[in-house]
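Hi X.,

You mentioned you wanted examples for the new student's onboarding notes, showing what a folding record looks like when two proteins sit in one file. Here is a clean example. The first protein comes first, with its sequence line followed by its structure tokens.
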Amino acid sequence: MDLGLMFFYCLPLLPLIYILWRNLDQKRHQNCYILDYECYKPTNDRKLSTKFSGEVIRRNKHLGIHEYKFLLKAIVSSGIGEETYAPKMVFEGREASPTLEDGLLEMDEFFIDSIDKLFKRTNISPSEIDVLVVNISMMATLPSLSSRIINFYKMREDVKVYNLTGMGCSASLISINIVQSIFKSQKNVKALLVTSESLSLGWYTGNDRSMILANCLFRSGGCAVILTNKPSLKDKAMFKLKCLVRTHHGAKEESYNCCIQKEDEKGFIGFHLGKNLPKAATRAFVDNLKEIAPKILPLRELLRGKAVIDAIAANLSLSEYDVEPARMTLHRFGNTSASSLWYVLAYMEAKKRLKKGDKVFMISFGAGFKCNSCLWEVMRDLEGRNVWEEFIDSYPRKNLANPFLEKYGWIQDEDPDTMIREGHDGANNDDDYIEGNMEKNEDEDHEEN
């Protein structure tokens, strides 16, 4: 059979061949890869020691002995260490009266440090970025923070921009989902994701226990990530996104109100963390797990059905080895909101735990109430050159005891009824009494040294 006749017989198949080729090519471009990421480590002069944290607490004149006892218990049980970071205005004693410039400075320091390092290490220039997604929950400016980044790095006029606020601790995976959606419709795209939280303008100066708790838990941090769907960059990628699921319980009043920014009875604005938060998180997690489990569990487990999913939700049976990255991240960096999961990932990488072919399950919770999760595949053995590199050998720490208990444990034994003197109201007297005892305690420490 000559070639002409063969072509004639194959001609009706050409449309089908074209459709198959187009679908395969489109699917190939829809993959979502992480090329690299950079977690932010502020300078050493922003570290919060036990002594300085005590000074910051004492500056809030609205706190009494009951609030001090509550804070002591919260800090000691939080798992947060002495090397976490806070914004500059805290060290200047202006947390009760921050300015817009304080918030912008906090963000600029993160942007310039982390984004610069990421561009340099990947050898990608700002002009190559096609999509920019920025999520900073507690700070909305005009122009937006995404515009601030575009102006600083002189990005292209046609860069697609998404600026997210109010999304809480789960915002990173929401941002990933936005990038993933764009990758499904556009080829050869490079995206920059910037995730952080502004503490400068969100400091609470009242005495509501559900709101002063946030001051104890949240710390400065952030992460910048470069993603792509370009097939030619596959071999340089660190991770490939396998699936992502988002669950939102905002329609449930109890879930909606368990994490919410509001004013207290005296008009002070803060972030309320309700007692029903664990319950709301559990419900959201179970619903999220029911959707993502069929996408990530092996076939043999899926055949066992709903009982397996319910069992996982009820008891994950995580070992100390499993929770070590999260515990150590909380100890070293504190809760950095939406960027926390990237510090956990960086810890696993620095410990050489991530090898080619491994699967990484990410899950995050946030105000709303939301639970978002995703599965990544490790594309190559990872070297661990990241924010943990300088001190990873000193982790995991066997002793995570917080020095607050040793230094301020005497507060637990004090009786508020014995502190009231004539001519003083309870709050002021509590403050005078506690300040005197703290100074006495510090003098004794100095003498021992």
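Then the second protein repeats the pattern, sequence line and then tokens:
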Amino acid sequence: MADVKFELITRRLQEVLGGDIIKAILAEGRTPKCYWGTAPTGRPHIGYFVPLTKIADFLRADVEVTVLLADVHAFLDNLKAPLELVAHRTQYYKKLLLAVFTSLGIPTSKLRFVEGSSYQLSREYSLDNYKLCTLVTEHDAKKAGAEVVKQVESPLLSGLLYPGMQALDEQYLGCDFQFGGVDQRKIFTFAELYLPRLGYAKRAHLMNPMVPGLGGGKMSSSDPNSKIDFLDPPEVVRRKIKNAFCEEGNTAENGVLAFVKAVLIPVSELRIERQQGKTGADAEEGASAIGDQTPFALEGAPDGTVFSVFRKEEYGGSLHYKSFDELEADFAAKKLHPKDLKTAVADGIIRLLDPIRAAFEQDEEWKKTEKLAYPDPNAKPEKKKKVYHPPPPGKGKNAKLADGAAGPAAPEGQAAPSAHAPDATSTTGAPEESNPAAS
């Protein structure tokens, strides 16, 4: 049983550090505890499906999962999210993650959501952070955050604090292993080195592969052309996939092909296993799922198909694959054309996003939060309406004279005398009485 759980916990990962720690916990019959964190900065993109889908495996293996909304980290990372926006973005991320988990059939009741500021501002945490600062060199701190913290010509001190705080989170969240992308590796090895120097236990670290951007390179929230937003409508999804780099026969740096491998096929396998009752310790998986929960296989596809590509009969008919290796081989041999692959991938992504967009449209609070978290930079500021304020007594054109009588009426065709200019003369040249109320 322990071996089965370990296989579930570690399958489809790119790298595992400290696997023996997890094996020892499982051998003792204890429940492993994990944390996965995300800093609420830019809009989350569909690359998040990779770690979120993997969390289903953790729950199947009876792992206790904590989701950290790292709001303090978001602020520290070279002001990617200004302090006044962090709170709104934190709530946006939570709303979105809950919707994605539900769309994947992952029971959110088994997940613990924690905001970093709820403990990272405490006296104990701050003191440990200071202790860490006495041990860590500037070189080590900068090196650890090189692939995660935004690199600028004149880096801020805040970016150097980022890796140390992520290491301390393992202790304060009480986890046995931290899970994240392979881009976190340097921070993970940093934590393995420095936590024991504070007298804390060394944790294991599990890393999922990163999904390349649509144009090659890393999929990034800061580059709208490299990624697809969770709330992108179908026409935008199709346009972005149509423009994605996907050269015929080229399987390297191919974001479209990589997304099939990292997201669509794992989700298909997850759904097939659920249909077969293979959910391990997570009997609630799929019970509250929203949206289409069938695999990405066309109707009539052979049993075990995890991904289908529709083609007209005149072009050889549809293609059905039971593994990514089969699909990749056909693409490399140019048996699968990029246009057909792109169409199938766009269809799959739209199916994944439909229930998430529907949840957003039905949640007025979420829509308000989205506008506060990501205000339109091109929006024109609202013009303030002028409010009429009546003049104080004795002022203005209708002011009364000191004795309470109205000022003398001007002869027809002439301007009325001013009550605010005691030295002025009337149009007839006669001296005008002064108005004490205006002096």
